[in-house]
Fold this sequence. Notes:
The chain is mainly α. The protein has helices at 14-42, 46-72, 92-119, 123-152, 157-167, and strands at 6-7, 11-12.
Amino acid sequence: MNAMTRTPEHGLSKFHRLLLDQVGHEFTASHQYFALAAWFDDRDLPGLARVFYRQSLEERDHATMMVRYLIDNGVSPDIPGVGGIETDFTGPRELVALALRQEQQVTEQIKQLAKAARDEHDYTGEQFLNWFLQEQVEEVSTMSTLLNVVDRGNGNMFDVETWVNRELSSTGDAAGAPGTAGPSVS
């Protein structure tokens, strides 16, 4: 263990404790996105289902990137449990709005992680989070745009599906992404 990982009086650093918590948040987000994908899949909206199945896998990868970082820095990854997820929805807008709120919440969590790393002079931790900060800008933007498209679709989900298939069909490039613990799906 390095000096930044544990202190005699406090155990793990604040940054490492928050990062362990974030692993749980990322796995919870993965499960939530899977539930959203299944809802769309069950309603014969395969484009939207694909977007959210892919998001589920990305969140899983984010958790495993964090686990890899912890392992590489001598912190035992005591994997937290998955939090509760929502599964009872009345319409597509509700699901996309939930996804946007989730991404906004994760953005705030990542910012708090970056602040903790900076406050503790954990420069490698701060550098590690740079990719996640950039990723969150993209995630919030994508979900904001998707919510706007759903709203403009005025209930015509086939128009939304057409837009999704045209604009969100690529998987994106995870260039510069941290390594994962175990295989990545990207």
